[in-house]
Design a protein that fits this description.
- The complex is a heterodimer of chains A (340) and B (158).
- Helices cover 28% and strands 24% of the residues of chain A.
- Chain A has 340 residues and is an alpha+beta fold.
- A 4-stranded mixed β-sheet of chain A has the order 1-9-10-11. In chain A, strands 4-3-2-8 form a 4-stranded mixed β-sheet.
- In chain A, helix 4 crosses helix 5.
- The longest helix of chain A is centred in the N-terminal third of the chain and has 28 residues.
- Chain B has 158 residues and is α+β, with helices and mostly antiparallel strands.
- Chain B has a 5-stranded mixed β-sheet with strand order 2-1-5-3-4.
- In chain B, a hairpin with a 2-residue loop joins strand 1 and strand 2.
- In chain B, helix 2 crosses helix 5.
- The chains are: A alpha+beta (340), B alpha+beta (158).
- Chains A and B meet through helix 4 of A and helix 4 and helix 5 of B.
Chain lengths: 340, 158
């Protein structure tokens, strides 16, 4: 019996969004008489932080404090249309739609303020703290609340904006097969170190090092949190989770947490993350989407690490002790590969 | 089916409600008492989402009979904050971004409180052991471990 260490590497390109009939998101932004703003979306926050990020994007574009923006994702029956929260598309697609809606609402807000201040709207700027003033003359100022109330009660103006971001369906060129299915890619690279027990077939993950390129990290803490959690979900799929039975009868498949194996805290390996920012030309403030691709490099990196450790090439996930032992038996024991 | 009155202390307050025969504590707290902070995850004691404290000890409320709470002190995540003032564990969870979807969070907080109540300065390994019965899908656990260690540190300084 021996423990064998191995390192595995994987690198991925991850396309943001999808190409199945066009990929639109819509957003509506409007102000309330208190000068605060509501963003209406049908995209849903699953905990990844979409509400926080769209709130930041709206506040930054409108030029108001982030506290003055409320993002409402309550009801896809009454909200503007959205394809949904999947394919890592939230920040990029929904964020772009929010940005456009906020730009339109901002233009009306500045017109309302201009009418009150008796100046040209083109001369107005926002200070990000709830004030609008004449460029170079901060004393010629009006609060967003006063502008919103003037629009509502005196001018009869709706401070509102509509936004849509659409990546249209990319048709395939019949002659060449050429198409443009995506506009933006995120990237990742990862090194995983494992230890394989050649007696039990068990694989322990000792260390994970990664670099993720996510465009601009619009909320760095949320990005890190999503990468860390998503990578661990990838680890879970590499080593434990499956809905398939381990033996060839569906009845043996897992139906609950007693049989569907999910790692707990005790299985955790240290994960050292580097976030690389190369802003996307067509992203909101350069953002792409860290979503699904946090998990993607983990699986091939683990499989490659097992191969280096004992020479067994596993092509069927998860990497269970049984598969490792069968592989070891087939090749007559552990045959570590030389390190590169 | 016979219903039985169960009198107990919930988060420091005298409480009473009728329990159905064989009703588990999780269902009792959520439907009869109206405390929705313990979560129904698996109903089999596998996920820890329903964790509550009974006389300070963590219990899986989905596997505990409601009647077992009679005359005892039950604590749930909804009792952690004092009015608008959050418990230091809740503060630390926020600071460390230790929640994403949030479904496991009440169970994590309650398990962590039980740990800190009996061991105010736990090591990382002790935190992991105390929370090993609580599953989390989103965070990758690390931020939760850090948050509990932070909260323990705060107590040590205070």
């Amino acid at each position: 019996m021996a423990l064998h260490r191995g390192r595995g590497f994987a690198a991925i390109n991850y396309p943001i969004g999808m190409n199945l009939g066009g990929d639109p998101s819509q957003a509506l932004v409007h102000s309330n008489p208190d000068g605060k703003f509501t963003v209406a979306l049908s995209a849903i926050d699953l905990g990844q932080g979409m509400k926080s990020v769209t709130r930041q994007i709206a506040a930054e574009t409108l030029g108001v404090p982030v506290e003055d923006v409320y993002v409402d994702t309550a009801d896809s029956d009454t909200g503007p249309h959205d394809m949904g929260s999947f394919a890592s598309r939230g920040t990029h697609r929904v964020g772009n739609a929010v940005m456009r809606a906020a730009e339109e609402a901002r233009a009306v807000m500045l017109e309302a303020a201009a009418e009150e201040l008796e100046v040209d709207a083109a001369d107005l700027v926002t200070d990000g703290k709830g004030n609008i003033h004449v460029k170079g003359a901060p004393s010629r100022s009006i609060t967003t609340m006063a502008a919103a109330q003037a629009a509502q009660f005196r001018q009869g103006r709706t401070i509102a904006g509509r936004g849509i971001f659409l990546i249209p369906l990319s048709e395939v060129d019949a002659e060449t097969g050429e198409m443009t299915p995506v506009s933006t890619f995120a990237h990742a690279a990862m090194i995983v170190e494992v230890e394989v027990d050649d007696e039990t077939g068990e694989v322990s993950v000792l260390d994970v090092k990664s670099a993720y390129e996510v465009g601009r990290a619009l909320n760095p803490k949320l990005v890190e949190q999503q990468l860390r959690g998503g990578a661990w979900m990838g680890m879970s799929h590499a080593a434990w989770e499956t809905t398939e039975p381990y033996y060839p009868a569906r009845d043996h498949g897992p139906v609950d947490f007693n049989h569907y194996l999910m790692p707990g805290m005790g299985d955790l390996a240290p994960h050292h993350i580097s976030v690389l920012e190369r802003p996307a030309a067509d992203g909101p403030f350069g953002g792409k989407g860290p979503g699904e691709m946090c998990a993607n490099p983990v699986l091939p990196a683990v499989v490659n690490a097992v191969y280096e450790a004992v020479g067994v090439r596993i092509d069927d996930l998860p990497v269970t002790p049984e598969k490792v032992l069968r592989g070891l038996r087939a090749q007559g024991g552990a045959k570590p590969k030389k390190r590169l | 089916m016979a219903k039985k009155p169960v009198t107990f202390t919930l988060n420091g307050r005298e409480s009473a409600a009728f329990a159905e025969e064989g009703q588990n504590l999780l269902d009792f707290l959520r439907r009869s008492v109206g405390d929705l902070s313990p979560k129904y995850g698996c109903g089999q004691g596998g996920c820890g989402g329903c964790t509550v404290l009974i006389d300070g000890e963590p219990h899986l409320s989905c596997l505990t009979l409601a009647e077992a709470a009679a005359g005892r002190k039950v604590e749930t995540a909804s009792g952690l904050a004092t009015g608008p003032v959050l418990h230091r564990l809740q503060e630390a969870f926020m600071e460390r971004f230790a929640a994403q979807c949030g479904f496991c969070t009440p169970g994590m907080l309650v398990s962590a409180k039980a740990l800190l109540d009996r061991n105010p300065r736990p090591t990382r390994e002790e935190v992991i052991e105390a929370l090993s019965g609580n599953l989390c899908r989103c965070t990758g656990y690390e931020p939760i471990i850090e948050a509990v260690l932070d909260a323990a540190g705060e107590r040590a300084r205070a």
